Amino acid sequence: MVSRDTPLLSVENLETHFDTAVEPVRAVDGASFTVDPGEVVGLVGESGSGKSVTARSIVGLESPGEIVGGSIRFDGTDLTDVDDRIRRQHRGDRIGMVFQDPTATLNPVFDVGEQIAEALRIHDVDRQRLTDFMHVPFVSDRQAWRDHRERAIELMEQVDIADPGSRAGDYPHEFSGGMAQRAMLAIALAGDPDLLIADEPTTALDTTTQATILERLDSLAATGETAVLLVTHDLGIVAERCDRVVVLYGGQVMESGPTEQVLTAPEHPYTRDLLECLIDDAEPQTRLSTIEGTVPDRFDEIGCPFASRCDYATAACRTSDPPIVDPGPDHRVVCGELETVPDAHVMDGANRSTRSEPTDGHAGSDRPPGNERERRVASASRTGDGTAAILAARNLSKRFETTDSWVDRLRGNRRYLDAVEDVSVSVERGQTLGIVGESGSGKSTVVDMLVGLEAPTSGRVELDGNPVGTVADRSAEQLAKVGVVFQHTRGSINPRATVRDVIAEPLFESGWDADRRTDRVDELLELVDLSPTHADRRRHQLSGGQLQRVAIARALALEPAVVVLDEPVSALDVSNRAKILNLLLDLQEQLGLTYVVVSHDLSVVGHVADEVLVMYAGQVMERGPTETLFDRPSHPYTNALLDAIPSVSGDTPAASLPGSVPSAVDPPSGCRFHMRCPLAEPECRSETPSMEAVDDARSRCHFASEIAADSDDDSEPLEHISPDTFS
C-alpha cells in the first residue's frame, strides 16, 4: 500500500447544495476523505447517498448544484478557490473522469478515434485543437493531428480494444457497452492524469468485461503514478480492488478505513446493513436482508442522517451530530452508539441480521423457511417431466442481413449476421429460467423472439404448447400471457406520463374501461408495495427501485403467466436489489408466475433461477439446473463467467477473460469458444462440438465429462489445468 504522508486529493467538509422550490437540498453535507498517489479508494453507498455528486464536485461538474462550503485540495491546490481556467487545466490534464453511461457521453457524430485524438489535442501544449480538429487548410497542423490519431490507436490498444487500427474509424453505436466504456477510459487517460475518477464504470457490463476494465484500473494504480477514486454500489468490487473504502450516506461519511478492516469488521450500522443485503451467503430463492426505507433528502435536519433507518438509533442520534470515533489505525466511524451495537464479522456470516423487508400481508409473509428452489423443483417433478413447459424455444435461429449497399444486393453480394443458432430451451410453469452470457452472445435476440418482437429465421416459439408468431400475429389472449420488464427502465417509461398512466397503458390498449383500469392500477400498486401517493408521480420523481416496481406492475397488468425480465436489478444498489429480488420471489409464490431472467450478474441468476442457459456467440454452451452449473460446470466458458464474479468474501480478485465474443458475421470454425479457451485442443479448432449430456445438464464441449468431474475438485482452478488432462 502506498504512503499516506502527502495525500494527492484531500476533500474536507465538502458541501454541495441543490436549489429546490422549497429549500436547498444538501446533497453533499460535510464529506471528508483523502486519496493518496497510486491508491485505489472506493466510494460506496446507496443511490441518493451523494457519491456521484461528490465525484462531480471534485472535477467542477457539480452543476446544477453549487459548492457552498469546504475544500477540495488537489496536490496542494484548493480547487474551490481557483478560477475556471485553472480548474479546466486540472480537469482532464491531471484529473480524468470515466462516466457511468458511455453511450450518453460519447459524441454519436464523430468516430471513436477522432474523439480520443481530440482529447489528446485538448491537453496538448500547442492548444490549436479547434483548427486542427476542423482540418482547416494552411492553419491546422496535419502532421500533429496524424500523430494524435496514432496515439489514440495506441490508447485503444492499451485499454484492450481489439483491432484498434480499424475500430478507431467506428462510431459509438458500433461499439458494445464494454467497448464503449473502454473508449471512455482511453479518453480519460489521454491527459495522462494523476487521479482517475471512475463513476460506476462497470454497472451495465457483463462480469468478464467488468473484470477486464477493473484490471486495467488496477494496472494504472500499480504504477504508482495514477490514483483511482472508484464510485460504485458493488461491494464485491470494492473488496477485491480497493485499498481503502469510504462509506457515504446522506452526503456524509459514515465510515472509512482500510477495505479489509471495514468489510470484515464493520463498525457503523449502515455499513453492516449494506453488507447484510448481499447475495453472497444467502440460500438460493430465500428472502434477502434489506434496509427499510430510502435515503432521504437532507434539508436543515440535524443529527445522524441514518437515524431514521437505524435499529440502534436513540433520541440523541436524531437531535445532535454524532461524534467521530477512531476504532483502529486510519479507521474512522461517525456514530455515537457504537457501544450498544453488538460485535459483527459480516464476511463469515457470524451475526447476519434476519431482518427483511416487511410484506404488509403480501405474498411470502407466511411462507415456511427453507430453500424455495428445492420445494419448486420437487413440485415440478410431481406435476410433469418437462412436457408441462409453458414457454419453449424449438431450434431457434435468427439471421440478420448486414448488406449496406443496394448495388451489392443487386449483385447478390449479401452479408449476413447469425445472431442465434439452433437454440432450444423450455421453462415449466412456476419455474425461473436464467439466461447468461457476455454482450454479443445472443441473449437479447433470443428474448426478442420469445416475446414476439423478432421473428425467427428458423425454428419456432411455443406458448402453452402452441406455436406462436410475432406480436402482430398473436391473439389478445396470447399477448396477455407474457409480460416484459425492459432493461433500461427509465428509458422505457414516458417522462410525461403519471405512474397511473404508465401502469394502465396495457389495460387501455386491451379495451378496459376507466373504472376497471383505476381499480386494477390500485391493486397493482399494492401488489408491488407502492403507496397510492405514487400514482400521480412522474418518472423524475421516482428512485431507481421505485421505477423498477412501476415497470413490474405494468408487466403484471394483464395477469400474465410468464414475465420476461431483462437485467431487472443491474442498475440498483445492494439494498434496492435485495428488495426487488424479494418482491419477485413473493410475486412468483403468490401468483404462480414463470420467469425468464436475462442478466450479466451470475450471482443474481444463481439466487433466483431454477435452470440456467449459458450462451456464447449465438449458441448454447451449457444448460441445466442452477445448482449443477454453479457447483459442477462442464464447460470452460461457464467456469470463466463464474470466476469473474466479484465477491466480498473472495480471496482473489475476479478473473477476466482475454479477448472478446467473435463477430457473428464471420464466426470461427470448430468450437466458437476455442480462441479464448485455456483448454483448447486441435480438434476444438476444427470440429464443432455437439450438446453432450453430463449428469443432469447438457454441454457443448468435447471434454464436458472430464471438466465436470474435475469441477468437483476445488484444489486447482480450471484455468491452471493442463490440456493434457483431457488428451
TrEMBL record:
<dbReference type="InterPro" id="IPR003439">
    <property type="entry name" value="ABC_transporter-like_ATP-bd"/>
</dbReference>
<dbReference type="InterPro" id="IPR003593">
    <property type="entry name" value="AAA+_ATPase"/>
</dbReference>
<feature type="domain" description="ABC transporter">
    <location>
        <begin position="9"/>
        <end position="275"/>
    </location>
</feature>
<keyword id="KW-1003">Cell membrane</keyword>
<dbReference type="InterPro" id="IPR017871">
    <property type="entry name" value="ABC_transporter-like_CS"/>
</dbReference>
<feature type="domain" description="ABC transporter">
    <location>
        <begin position="391"/>
        <end position="642"/>
    </location>
</feature>
<dbReference type="InterPro" id="IPR013563">
    <property type="entry name" value="Oligopep_ABC_C"/>
</dbReference>
<comment type="subunit">
    <text>The complex is composed of two ATP-binding proteins (NikD and NikE), two transmembrane proteins (NikB and NikC) and a solute-binding protein (NikA).</text>
</comment>
<dbReference type="InterPro" id="IPR027417">
    <property type="entry name" value="P-loop_NTPase"/>
</dbReference>
<dbReference type="GO" id="GO:0015413">
    <property type="term" value="F:ABC-type nickel transporter activity"/>
</dbReference>
<keyword id="KW-0472">Membrane</keyword>
<keyword id="KW-0547">Nucleotide-binding</keyword>
<dbReference type="InterPro" id="IPR050388">
    <property type="entry name" value="ABC_Ni/Peptide_Import"/>
</dbReference>
<dbReference type="GO" id="GO:0005886">
    <property type="term" value="C:plasma membrane"/>
</dbReference>
<feature type="region of interest" description="Disordered">
    <location>
        <begin position="341"/>
        <end position="386"/>
    </location>
</feature>
<feature type="compositionally biased region" description="Basic and acidic residues">
    <location>
        <begin position="717"/>
        <end position="727"/>
    </location>
</feature>
<keyword id="KW-0406">Ion transport</keyword>
<dbReference type="Pfam" id="PF00005">
    <property type="entry name" value="ABC_tran"/>
</dbReference>
<keyword id="KW-0813">Transport</keyword>
<feature type="region of interest" description="Disordered">
    <location>
        <begin position="705"/>
        <end position="727"/>
    </location>
</feature>
<feature type="compositionally biased region" description="Basic and acidic residues">
    <location>
        <begin position="354"/>
        <end position="377"/>
    </location>
</feature>
<protein>
    <recommendedName>
        <fullName>Nickel import system ATP-binding protein NikD</fullName>
        <ecNumber>7.2.2.11</ecNumber>
    </recommendedName>
</protein>
<dbReference type="GO" id="GO:0015833">
    <property type="term" value="P:peptide transport"/>
</dbReference>
<keyword id="KW-1278">Translocase</keyword>
<keyword id="KW-0067">ATP-binding</keyword>
<dbReference type="GO" id="GO:0016887">
    <property type="term" value="F:ATP hydrolysis activity"/>
</dbReference>
<dbReference type="Pfam" id="PF08352">
    <property type="entry name" value="oligo_HPY"/>
</dbReference>
<dbReference type="GO" id="GO:0005524">
    <property type="term" value="F:ATP binding"/>
</dbReference>
